[in-house]
Amino acid sequence: MLTHEQAGDVFDRIRKLSSADEVEVLFSGGRFALTRFANNTIHQNVAEQNHGVSVRTVFGGRTARATTNKFDSESLGQVVRSSESLARVQHPDPDLLPMPRPEQAGEAAVGGGRSGSLPSRHFEETAAITPELRAEAVRKIVGIAEPRQLTTAGVFASGESFEGIFNSRGLSRWHTQTSAEVSVTMQAADSSGWQKANSPDVTRVDPLGLAEIAANKALESAHPGEIPAGKYTVILEPAAALDIVGFMFWDYAGMAILDQRSFLTGRIGSKLFGENVTIWDDVTHPLQAGTPYDGEGMSREPVELVRNGVVKRVVYARATAERMRRSEYKDKVGPIAATGHGFPLPNEMGEMPLNIVFAPVNDPQTVEQMIASTERGVLVTRLWYIREVEPFEKMLTGMTRDGTFLIENGRVRGGLRNFRFNESLIRMLCNVESMSVPVRAAGEESFEMVVPAMKVCDFNFTEVTKF
Amino acid sequence: MNTAALRGASYADVRMVAQRSRALTTKNGKVGSASDAESVGMSVRVIADGAWGFAASAELGRGAVEATAAEAVAIAQASSRVKRENVRLAPEKPVVAGWSTPYKIDPFTISVEQNIDLLLRIDAELRSVAGITLAETNLNFHREEQWFLSSEGADIQQTKLSTGTGYAAYAFAGNEIQKRSYPNSFGGQWQNKGYELVEELMLVENARRIAEEAVALHKADQCPEGKFDIILDSSQLGLQIHESIGHPIELDRVLGMEANFAGTSFLTLDKLRKLRYGSDLVNVVADARQEHGPGLGTFGFDDEGVAAQCTPIISHGLFTGYLSSRETAHTIGAARSGGTLRAEGWNRLPMIRMTNVSLLPGEKPLTLEQLIASTDHAILVQTNRSWSIDDKRYNFQFGCEIGWEIKNGKRVRMVKNPSYSGITTEFWNSLDAVCSRAEWTLWGTPNCGKGQPQQVMGTGHGAAPARFRGVKVGTAFLGN
């Protein structure tokens, strides 16, 4: 893998090749491998090595970006020329700020966040995973499926990556990380179960434990019954909760407010959700992963987005914060400051919180306790194909999948055919009766978060599908 | 390939790919993003010990290439530890050939100034309408050169070129955000064409109308709820085809190979040539050939060297074909692959993807206005806003940007927030009219996600407006 020092040398070469007022270079890449299985056999098994260098140049308020994955001198010269020729023909952007100096980027601030020092996210044991090790884990997962007449499908992925940023005002930041991910589906004749987990540290991912849970879900949801669509108390396991709540975080951005595309427009400071909902963005949380700085190299600061149901603030890239201070909204959006959540420039989306952490509640309930206290309801393992139907009330539609169960009189009674839901996320987060201890969860519709299971009343199912 | 063979591969293919793209966007009178990107690399796909291995690298030096080939074989040997049977490839005569996307104007020769000027003119036109709070435009160009070689002797060079462009106008007022897009939502229209696509689309000419519709939606009535006949415009019908025909016919899904992520399919193998998928008017093909049109699923050869083909998928309502590959062809008794294996880039494994899955136009002349004139009571819905379907592709729900109530052959009022839902085969069996060739458009879907690691692929979908009887409308807002 490219090292910080090697990248610094490449940056120096690029800087000499450029005549721009300012130059910024992003580096990314690494090694990634994924073993994929289905029908109790490994059917796809891939590995790749890649790296990219992305050059942004600035001429008198004009900026543009060019990217390549070739590091030879000719290619670096070409990517600099592409960036410069694109930048020169832009209109000057009055909102473009000078690139941040190291002291502005707040490098020292990392580690001083709400959750303490930034933990290491590079683990040798994860980096050393081989195809043989992944295949052996898959063999054991198949060994759980076959005796129970189940068919399994899933992935075991691992990788090692780097991200870096340098600019001509002296900023130089580097982050390395490993990743391990296991996802398991178990299929029976008319039912299925699913589990997924990932972590920078492979020792925190238990493939066989996940396979056991997925297998039990497939068996326990066999011969699914059908109940009519309608409003039910639902228990969303963490992956299901993650996938649905993830759809609102694009809106927690200063640019989304300025663009009037956020459902928080005119609502910051108001109590939008239930008292038990408190949400942070916190890259330093021990269960989080990712780069501790943003697309300009600014340190990601922990930000309290929602406290006891009240939307407190949104996140900002540097330029968005400046624009917000001059805007008609400046007195209606809570604290305004660059928080280190910007995307690489130039972009039209501004920023977004990517390290969501739900705060623990005082009286957490396990999923089992939630089931025991439910007279009639639906237990949901996973949601699927979620899309936004209406943006201001945050109406979302989607399906349940891979383990949907009927709860009656405090017990799981068996599997159910899957539902379509159409539900307002705002209303849903007003209707959370109880939560579990937040965990690091992984789904397919949203990015990973630290999120609890949720028991939600009056969740709106509108249709039942055929299985 | 020599290294792979020496290490024990019984089959190997190599793809070298060079991709170049340009993306320009504007937002509210300013350039939003301006970027060029290129990516070059190679991959080796092998069968060893009867199992698959794949490795890819951006490094193209001799040592790196040989190491990549060796890694692919080692991965295949690891795969073989968990296999039931050896991989079988349908025979394919290896060819030495070249193919390029036909185009009139290379979009990369159009100056960035000219492109930005066009986008800003559209932007100004959109924002000249009172009530528009956000205007977004985009232009995208993509070129891909690929060299494919196989241990069987194939040697194929292809150059593919695509262009995409569109815009959206948003109107925020009260507690409501309404939006209209042109010529389609989520990036507009995309085809395997040069800059001539941009010139054909009448982008500036349509901007004011689109913006006015976005504002007018605030005063429109909510789309009624209940069972109605509906008419889908061709772009929405294109997405309907994509989700409820294109994905279910992917043979890898049918065989369970996508069960963990994208899902499976209700189209189990026993349904081939037996299932009544739709009404007699439903004729669908998967056609990758240039003569079908400049779709995002048009090419000369797929990514395992199989020539582009036209596969009948639904013939007069009867389900007749799947999308297949060399590995899967035998499961449906086919002697040859249907030629649908494609990869997002050099670093991704080719997999079964839709080509151009299109509903053929009606044979009798019928314009949209004539279809409306022949309709007693229906909702005409235009331009997708949301889409969702279950993991076996039975139950779907779509939301659209705008609707029009039709009574006694005339549009009587605009309605907002139209949505409809149904079960795939019930829906396609309710089709009772399809407009003819003059109304048929080959739409591009540039953002189809599938696979692990996920790959984004462009697919094509030809459609003319069509009418469906007795469809559930407004379900999205039921109980809310």
Quaternary form: heterodimer
Rounded to an integer, what's the Rg of chain B over CA atoms? Answer: 23 Å
Distance between the termini of chain A: 46 Å
The major pleated sheet of chain A works out as:
6 strands, antiparallel
Main sheet overview of chain B: 8 strands, mixed
**Helix-strand string of chain A:** HEEEHHHHEEEHEHHEEEHEHEEEEHEEEE
Low-confidence stretches of chain A: 109-116
How confident overall, as mean pLDDT of chain A? 96
Physical arrangement of strands within the biggest beta sheet of chain A: 3-2-1-4-5-6
Q: Enumerate how many helices of chain A there are, as a single number.
A: 11
Computed structural class of chain A: alpha+beta
Nearest-angstrom radius of gyration of chain A?
A: 24 Å
Residue stretches of chain B low in confidence (pLDDT < 50, at least 5 long) are none
Number of strands of chain B: 24
User: In what range is the share of β-strand residues of chain B?
Assistant: 35-45%
**Helix share of residues of chain A?**
10-25%
Counted beta strands of chain A: 19
**Coarse shape of chain A:** globular
Instruction: Supply the helix-strand structural class of chain B.
Output: alpha+beta
Biggest interface goes to: A-B, 99 and 85 residues
Which strand-content bin applies to the residues of chain A?
Answer: 35-45%
How does this model look, in words?
The complex is a heterodimer of chains A (467) and B (480). By secondary structure, chain A is of the alpha+beta class. Chain A has 11 helices and 19 strands. Chain A has 2 domains: 1-220, PmbA/TldD fold; 224-467, no CATH class. Mean pLDDT of chain A is 96; it is low at 109-116. Chain B contains 9 helices and 24 strands. In chain B, strands 1, 2, 3, 4, 5, 6, 7 and 8 form an 8-stranded mixed sheet that branches. Chain B has a 5-stranded mixed beta barrel with strand order 10-17-18-20-24. In chain B, strands 13-12-11-16 form a 4-stranded antiparallel sheet. In chain B, strand 17 and strand 18 (395-407) form a beta hairpin. Chains A and B meet through strand 1, strand 2, strand 3, helix 2 and helix 5 of A and strand 2, strand 3, helix 2, helix 3 and strand 17 of B.
